[in-house]
Amino acid sequence: MKSFFGPGAIAALLTAADIAAAQQTPFSISSTDDIKKTASILSWDLLQYYKGNESGQTPGLLPGPPPVGPYYWWEAGAMFGTLIDYWFLTGDSTYNDLTIAGIQFQTGTDDDFQPRNETLSLGNDDQGFWGMTAMLAAEENFPNPPEGRPGWLALAQAVFNTQASPDRHDDTCNGGLRWQIPPTNKGYPYKNSIANGCFFNIGARLARYTGNTTYSDWAEKTWNWWAGVGFLDAETYAIYDGADVAVNCTDINKAEFSYNSAVWLLGAAYMWNHTKSDVWKTRVNKLVDHGLETFFPKGIAYEPTCEPWGTCSTDMLSFKGYVHRWYATTTQVAPFTAAKILPVLKKSATAAIKQCTGGALGRQCGFKWDSGKYDGVTGVGQEMNVLGAVSSLLIGGSKGPVTNSTGGTSQGNPNAGANPNSFEIPVQPITAGDKAGASIVTIIVVCSTVSLLGWMSLGA
Ligand SMILES: *[C@@H]1O[C@H](CO)[C@@H](O)[C@H](O)[C@H]1NC(C)=O
Ligand SMILES: *[C@@H]1O[C@H](CO)[C@@H](O)[C@H](O)[C@H]1NC(C)=O
Ligand SMILES: *[C@@H]1O[C@H](CO)[C@@H](O)[C@H](O)[C@H]1NC(C)=O
Ligand SMILES: *[C@@H]1O[C@H](CO)[C@@H](O)[C@H](O)[C@H]1NC(C)=O
Ligand SMILES: *[C@@H]1O[C@H](CO)[C@@H](O)[C@H](O)[C@H]1NC(C)=O
Ligand SMILES: *[C@@H]1O[C@H](CO)[C@@H](O)[C@H](O)[C@H]1NC(C)=O
């Protein structure tokens, strides 16, 4: 019989999280080889959440959306972008086939990333994340899809064209994209920085990749509208979340999220790379200064609007990885930012791996990087963040994003995405015999819509 004060009793008082927090991370980033090895394990751990390559599962989806599982449709699109960067930076092609299959399965009937299954969570930002992933595949010369499938460039052009359509740009608040696409979605009356930031980002990158000025004109116009409506603070360069069209966007929600900083910074950096203009250089510098101060207050990635209270949603728990990846690419396309950004990304990645001590294998990552301790909760966002931070450390050794005149091989289609409303299910002529059935279907659809909406959270 053990004495009451014996070691067993003390161990029993410690929670699993305490034990994990006391452990040492198995990861190292002290050499290129260590970085690659660490990234390889992190990518494997991340892929444990993905079942889309297994029989009976849907390619391109993470478990979800709520209440079925934690992840909305867009996050898988973001994950494939993380995996494309992982391949590009490390050379490890283990996940390429699964990535190609997953992206291609989710392109929707019109190959514009508006699959009808996802209409309930189809925001311009959700579609935009898949579009940015396709754009990245073109820029990094990711293996092209099989014959007969749309090229990465064509997919990015499709997203751009649907979002540039007059259907998406009404006069409320003087222009700009709404958050949601279908008017029936919760969040349709909101115009915000992330939806417009994804559109701006894709436009800037298509302009550089193709040289077509239609894209840069839209990027300029989007920036001007967004700054003009007050979502960009002209003094501080803080980026605010968004506002309601009912009051002409005068009730600005001043919450700052790190992915807004990163998506606008990267787009502005591409605009500078494309134009070499001092106007864009100044904007890039101001975004970097405000972004580093706000989202890396101790030199470590931090989500100020939710992290201090532990209120980050599943979406928000994935932002740090985009910030690391997009800030890293910024240093390539706008090299004058490298001296400021790179040391911070390194310090932040060092903190990131330190807290990866959770789970059965003692290496799952949490979200509170600046605490130095595993916080007891892991998931796709937490793993993907650290993978993005670690693989981005190899940015200096990689060649930058290509264009179609510097080695890009992706097949484009400037006319892709001609139907901005392709997410709508076509109305079939109803015969008398179908009517009873149709009303039952309507009731079921309405009920499940309402219960899904109850679960939707603000964010991407
Ligand atoms: C799915 O991908 C993971 C990660 O590469 C792999 O471990 C697993 O075996 C794959 N499953 C199937 C059925 O191919
Ligand atoms: C849409 O949902 C159906 C039913 O679950 C599934 O069979 C199909 O593969 C899904 N399509 C996409 C693109 O996810
Ligand atoms: C690059 O794209 C532009 C616009 O689509 C096209 O006019 C041009 O021919 C392309 N250049 C090459 C080298 O493919
Ligand atoms: C709505 O806001 C825009 C942009 O801030 C402004 O230019 C416009 O005059 C406003 N319209 C009305 C009716 O107040
Ligand atoms: C533009 O971006 C490319 C790709 O990363 C980079 O090699 C090039 O140096 C950049 N241009 C300038 C003027 O810095
Ligand atoms: C430029 O892009 C626009 C918008 O997608 C398209 O309509 C136009 O045909 C493109 N021009 C060229 C030369 O590819």
TrEMBL record:
Q: Which domain of life is it from?
A: Eukaryota
Q: Where in the cell is it found?
A: Endomembrane system
The signal sequence is 1-22
Alphabetized InterPro entries for the sequence:
6-hairpin_glycosidase_sf, Glyco_hydro_76, Mannan-1_6-alpha_mannosidase
Q: Which residues cross the membrane?
A: 436-458
Report the source organism: Trichoderma gamsii
Is this entry keyworded Zinc-finger?
no
One Gene Ontology cellular component term attached to this UniProt record is:
endomembrane system
Reaction(s) catalysed by this chain, per the record, are: Random hydrolysis of (1->6)-alpha-D-mannosidic linkages in unbranched (1->6)-mannans
Set out the biological process GO terms recorded for this chain's protein: carbohydrate catabolic process; fungal-type cell wall biogenesis
Give the protein name, as stated in the record. Mannan endo-1,6-alpha-mannosidase
Q: Name one GO molecular function term.
A: mannan endo-1,6-alpha-mannosidase activity
Family of this protein? Belongs to the glycosyl hydrolase 76 family.
